Amino acid sequence: MHDYRLRHGEPADEPALLDLFALVFGQKRSSAEWRWKFTSSRALFDGSGSCDSLVALDNRGQIVAHAGALILPGWFQNKPIPIVQVCDVMVHPEHRGGLGRNNLFTLLMRALLERLADRFPTAFRYGFPGQRPYQLGEWAGVYERMEVAIETEIPPHRNRFALWRATPLAWDDRRLDRQWMRLRRQYSLSLIRDGAYLRWRYAENPSHTYRLTGVSLLGQLAGWVVSRHESERILLVDVLMPHP
User: Fold this and answer.
1) Which of 8, 29, 81, 126 is 20–30 Å from 90 (CA)?
2) What ranges in 30-103 are assigned the alpha helix state H?
3) What share of the chain is helix, strand, coil (3-state, %, to 5)?
4) CA–CA separation, 217 vs 202, rounded Å?
5) Rounded to 5 degrees, what angle do the CA atoms 48, 169, 128 make?
């Protein structure tokens, strides 16, 4: 039986967490990626960005689990709210399983969600767990399905007489903030997707290279699309467009 101690994650935990990430997910994450996600986000959005991660230590003082939480500016029913993305939930293989307080995943997630509820009682909380982690979280009562993501392929199509035009857009284009302010009321729930968010999430992302494309109607910017190349495909990863 293990006695676990939970505490807030600290910058000095980074080397141990990178090792744990590689062990759990079978791939390495660089320091630049980790700091972009859990450090640079704190300084964004005029101080309204933050992170609130928990780590679990075994009786030898070794980090054996982690649950991350990014707190980003959100928008709900025409009012700003915090939006929390729970991410990088990982438990060392030797410390999985068990019932009740011996189930480290459940112990860690319940503690994190309780902490977040106390700090951000109005926040919307979400994440993107895989199928097996989701099933465990549902059984533990810490996850609830909101929607199932699907993948759709659209063949390329050109129409030289179309009224719409797509052209490259700079990440520091001043119109990005105006577009968000103009279109935000059509979203009942969303991250605040202004220029600051786009630059952090995509332009400064050390893992992938993204492109920002402006979509214009009759010469006026109507919205934008974020994309990236993967082999021979173009993935559309974010879109802000007026609803029809």
Assistant:
1) 81
2) 31-38
3) 35, 30, 35
4) 24
5) 50
